[in-house]
Amino acid sequence: MKLLITGGAGFVGARLARTLLANDKKAGTLAGQRIDSLVLADQFAPPPDLLADPRVAARTGALLDQCAGLGAERFDGVFHLASAVSGECELDFELGMRSNLDSTRALLDALRRAGNAPRFVFSSSVAVFGPDPGRPLPDVVADDTLPTPQTSYGTQKLMCEQLIADCTRKGFIDGRAARLMTVTVRPGKPNAAASSFFSGIIREPLAGVESICPVDASVSHPVSSPARTVDGLIAVYEASRDALGGRLALNLPALNVTVREMLAALEAVAGPAVRAHVRFERDDRIAGIVANWPKGASAARAAKLGLTPEASFADIVRQYIADCRARPDADITLKGLAS
Q1: Coil, strand or helix: which one is 120?
Q2: Smallest Cα–Cα separation from 137: which of 194, 197, 221, 217?
Q3: Catalytic site includes residue 153
Q4: Alpha-carbon distance 265 to 320, whole Å?
Q5: Distance, CA of 110 to CA of 227 (rounded, Å)
Q6: 267 with 199: CB under 8 angstroms?
Q7: For labelling alongside 44, which of 36, 66, 139, 220 has CA 20 to 30 A away?
Q8: Which letter does DSSP use for residue 181 in this model?
Q9: Containing H/E element for 287?
């Protein structure tokens, strides 16, 4: 089979690619088919280890400019992960619409013209939920909670969900949308996502660097580890329409946790000296965005696919440490953590 991952050079996209390729080498398959070709489309080149695999090809450039050519390649399956992030979408409306809605529509149009109805997984977001004056946001949003996004990013994700559902109804694709929880801990540098601090308050202290938390310690939010997120994307791809059980958009599993609990887990795993690298300094813009996000989420439909959240946030911290130690630069990445 021939697969496409948009956003394939990014953190989640690259991890998904590595997982799929490793599964295939172990005689595992994706939805019963062996992967012959994996195309990674992104603005930047994929990591060297992925490019070294003979099954991998890169398509580099803005997705909106690539869509027509990608559609002509006639993919059997697509993971559409490419997206502008929440904070930059709030600051630049045109950027968000172009990167999220316009690119998704152009990709779907190109796949429709190709005519082979590929299976299509869209990475939506828990940001599709928000408070509405006529319908208060529950403390825990479920698969059937009415989406009422209060950010441009969440609105764009919801519009894409509906577009994918209609293209599936018309038979152009076999689509489904996985609503990702905030993925933590992300390696590398902070990005423009309003949720970036959920990784920063763990990643930076473990590197011996100060991290500023822009919200109160009482803030609660649904999160997921990178490994569980990738597992969820694959499970949603492999699920039959009957197994999905109705609407094509569903929540991925979440660990509902407060900032205070995250920092307590960091201290329990890495010690008080590491925890001391975090200080609180409120950022009203970030706090305002986060205040319109769910405090928690449930995922009953994902549970029926065998998906579960992590048992504790400490497990997520340990996963990040293990991932870093598996990298050549682990001694730099974890220099704040005693060996």
Answers
A1: strand
A2: 221
A3: yes
A4: 13
A5: 31
A6: no
A7: 36
A8: P
A9: helix 284-291
HEC profile for 46-107? CCHHHHCCCCEEEEECCHHHHHHHHHHCCCCEEEECCCCCHHHHHHCHHHHHHHHHHHHHHH
Q: Which two tokens stand for residue 228?
A: 């569980």
The position carrying tokens 């920092």 is: 263
Helix (H, G, I), strand (E, B) or coil at 193: coil
The answer to whether 156 and 96 are in contact (CB under 8 A) is yes
Cis bond leading into 230, ω under 30°? no
- Say if CB 315 and CB 253 are below 8 A apart: no
List, in order, residues 6 or more apart from 22 with CB less than 8 Å away. Answer: none
129, 153, 172, 313: which is the annotated catalytic residue? 153
337 φ, ψ to 5°?
Answer: -110, 125
Which tokens go with 270? 């890495």
The C-alpha atoms of residue 338 and residue 39 are separated, in whole angstroms, by: 40
- Name the residue with tokens 């601090």: 197
Other CB atoms within 10 Å distance of the CB of residue 27:
7
* Cβ(137)–Cβ(130) below 8 Å: yes
Token reading at 327: 């990298």
Q: Give me the tens of pLDDT residue by residue for the chain, a chain 339 residues long.
A: 999 999 999 999 999 999 999 876 554 478 889 999 999 999 999 999 999 999 999 999 999 999 999 999 999 999 999 999 888 998 899 999 999 999 999 999 999 999 999 999 999 999 999 998 888 899 999 999 999 999 999 999 999 999 999 999 999 999 999 999 999 999 888 877 888 999 999 999 999 999 999 999 999 999 999 999 999 999 999 999 999 987 899 999 999 999 999 999 999 999 999 999 999 999 999 999 888 889 999 999 999 999 999 999 999 999 999 998 887 555 556 776 665
Dihedral angle of Cα 54, 6, 324, 279, to the nearest 10 degrees: 170
